[in-house]
Specification:
Helices cover 82% and strands 0% of the residues. By secondary structure, it is mainly alpha-helical. The protein has one domain.
Length: 119
């Protein structure tokens, strides 16, 4: 189980880090029209939070200090993905492929948070 969690943590850290880099280069509307209501300042703040979460998914476990940060980072990503789903539904331009993607990422991060909390 520990190996599976580590593999998922590294993959989600890479995913989240790349997502943060994407947010620095694209606006919310360019990324997904249903996210157009997110102001640019908040979009950049989300990118910074994602970078911190990517670090928080891997570094605390590697250093064996503050391992609870892994669960916290994963739960922040879950919240962000669910927020994107909610914004997509209420925007009027529902993109089911994006919602499915965000829900899968949220489920994986939820599994990481649950697994690390109970480990």
């Amino acid at each position: 189980m520990n190996i599976l969690l580590w593999v998922l943590q590294v993959l989600m850290a890479l995913h989240t880090g790349l997502g943060a880099a994407w947010k620095f280069t694209k606006t919310a509307e360019e990324t997904n029209p249903s996210l157009a209501m997110i102001p640019y300042g908040i979009w950049i703040a989300l990118a910074i939070i994602e970078l911190l979460c990517a670090i928080g998914l891997v570094v605390p476990g590697y250093l064996k200090r503050y391992t609870s940060l892994i669960s916290i980072s994963a739960l922040i990503i879950v919240f962000e993905m669910l927020m994107f789903c909610t914004l997509s539904v209420f925007s009027g331009t529902v993109d089911y492929a994006s919602i499915a993607y965000w829900l899968i990422v949220a489920a994986i991060c939820g599994f990481i948070a649950f697994g690390r909390r109970n480990a």
